[in-house]
Amino acid sequence: MRSSNPVFSRRGFSRDNGYAGFNAAPQAGAPAAGANPYAQGTAPNPYATNPYATTGAPAPVRTGAMSIDDVVTRTAMTLGTVVLGAALAWALLPVDEDNLGKSYGIAIGAAIIAFVLSLVQSFKRKPVPALILAYAAFEGVFLGVISSAVSTYIGPGVVMQAVMGTMCVFAGVLLAYKMRWIRVTRRFYGFVMAAAMGFMLLMVVNLLFAAFGGGDGLGFRSGGLGILFGVIGIILGACFLALDFKQVEDGIAYGAPREESWLAAFGLTMTLVWIYLEMLRLLSILSGDD
Predict the structure, then answer these.
(1) Which residues make beta-bridge pairs with 23?
(2) What number of helices (H) and strands (E) belong to the chain?
(3) 257: β partners
(4) pLDDT at residue 263, rounded to an integer
(5) pLDDT at 190 over 90
(6) Is 97 helix (H, G, I), strand (E, B) or coil?
(7) Which pTM was predicted?
(8) Residue 216 carries which DSSP code?
(9) How many CB atoms lie within 10 A of CB 42?
(10) Which residue has the higher pLDDT, 143 or 20?
(11) What is the secondary structure of 19-46 as a DSSP string?
């Protein structure tokens, strides 16, 4: 299993040992291998087997394959669950002085549960919609409390700015990917994953220093360094989006089963949550410096 998400690995859409079709051949009617940097091997595509090849009979049209409509629908359901969970948490878990500790405790608990559910799904052979939607619900609770706290203590407009910023990043990366200004190759994938591991390592070190030394640890999340790392985090999120788009494109081209659209929705949701949190953090620092 490999992933475009820095938190853990998840498999691509091909069932071989590669990433998103590294060693698979496209199904009939799909782009030729030369047009796909991920299709460099000779192993057959498990989604496009043709038992009629030796008899000369035409292969039947594959039914139940993933389509872009499936991905859009599942992503809308998953993101809708996140938004619903966030709205309920915002309304039911106030962050005033009397309830701040309780609300933060619930938010941290929800984040841990969401992370565990994500790990469970990542090691499943098939996507489990209930797990994915449960992850989205608990992630929404965490985002709702954090967003409410930022709105209360930083400024009411910061949350909306973060939402709009996340939408702009998504639209910008989608446009750049469709125009082929961004080309997802093995080198691109390796660079992004190396940068992500370095980024996560620095954040863990900063968290440990903050936990044992107090304050903001090494200062990676406040002041000038906080702004710099916030920008880097958003850029990494944009790169993860490009990898997610490539996975979706390969899943459709290689005839992945329709159920795999849940994995696409899962990956896109995780990446958008990453971008939103980095955007919220960056805007909070900038608003605090005003």
Answers:
(1) 39
(2) 7, 0
(3) 65
(4) 93
(5) yes
(6) coil
(7) 0.79
(8) T
(9) 9
(10) 143
(11) SSSTB-PPPTTSPPGGG-TTB-S-SPPT
pLDDT digits (tens, 9 = 90+) for 16-75: 333 343 334 444 444 443 344 333 333 444 444 444 334 444 444 456 889 999 999 999
Q: What are phi and psi of 4, to 5 degrees?
A: -95, 0
CA distances from 166 to 61, 159, 160, 226, 241 (A): 39, 11, 10, 18, 11
11 vs 118, 126, 163, 263, CA distance in Å?
13, 10, 28, 9
Among 290, 163, 281, which Cα is nearest to 229's? 281
Show the tokens assigned to 184: 């997802």
| Tokens 């009411």 belong to residue | 156
- pLDDT number for residue 225: 82
The mean pLDDT of 99-122, rounded to a whole number, is: 92
CA-based Rg of the chain, rounded to a whole angstrom? 21
DSSP tag of 180: T
Tokens of 44: 């057959």
Q: Which among 54, 50, 9, 5 is positioned nearest to 27, based on CA atoms? A: 50
- Which residue matches tokens 């390796």? 190
Find where tokens 């920008």 sit.
231
3-state secondary structure of 66: coil
Residue 219 vs residues 88, 141, 178, 230: alpha-carbon distances, Å: 33, 27, 38, 12
